[in-house]
Amino acid sequence: MKRLALSAAVVMPLAVLAGPALADCSDLTIASMNWQSAELMANLDQFILNEGYGCDAEIVVGDTVPSITSLVEKGKPEIVPEAWVDLMPEIVAAGIKDGKIVEMARSLSDGGQQGWFIPRYMLDEHPNLNKISEILAHPELFPAPEDASKGAVFNGPAGWGGTIVTTQLAKAFDIEGHGFTLVDTGSAAGLDGSMAKAYEQKAPWLGFYWAPTSMLGKYDMVPVDFGMANDMAEWKRCTSVADCPDPKPNAFPVDNVFTLIASDFAKDADQGVLDYLKKRSWGNDTVNKMMAWMTDNQATGEEGAREFLRTHEEMWTQWVSPEAAEKIKSAL
Q1: 55-58: long-range contacts, CB 8 A cutoff, minimum separation 24
Q2: Which keywords label this protein (predicted)?
């Protein structure tokens, strides 16, 4: 996703659950968003809660805005495993303040990431090439497909937030004055194809991408260091605004991604379930590789969850109780 996540970052402390928890995990619903990483996490939660803790959890398909809005207003679905809270920070913050929802673990421990990337093999050959200053000094290392005398920055298709930002950053860093040009890839498939073709040929590539994605699970790409922290005020004023005439140098923000649950569910759920939801967190590298496996095998979220449980026992057993771990292993 989160090429569209351009809202202000919100940092909120993890909620502390007080009071005794009831030994109960009956019927509940888990939101599965319409992208691969969220589908994987929803199915993982369903399997672990049902098989490890005796829940009767069902998955409901949704999307960020309707799922989080329904959670805040109606208390259902009871669990939103991968909530990109920066897409609707006011609603999430108000829901927490009013005691309607509870914030659990960071779903993505290193957050949702957007940026410009280069292949690892280019950095291995040219140390420091992941720094924007070094890139701008060497357009000859990134020859454009239509004009090899210029360096290329591959952009996403029209309409993407990341495409707008890349266009604005290209102006801010004066890539044209440094001998570069933006390459319109036309579509998501075009952007993916440009990266895949370059990587398979061990050819140069520089462009916009994001994580978690199956592409970054398949291809070892390194983010570009823009040499500064994200300035959110500038981001909202101009970096993410298509018609802003005077963009300044900036960097991409990291999106906050949390698990959110309904307060009523938090009050009644078994403490072991709550402990799991407070611990269950993984990094983009893990998710990228799982998504790549799912893509290569045309696997569903359920199949991806089972594959993760089979191959990452050292990780998920740290999230659950020993008793739940044995039940999950038996179910596999």
Answers
A1: 55/25, 55/26, 55/28, 55/273, 56/25, 56/26, 56/27, 56/28, 57/27, 57/28, 57/29, 57/30, 58/27, 58/28, 58/29, 58/30
A2: Signal
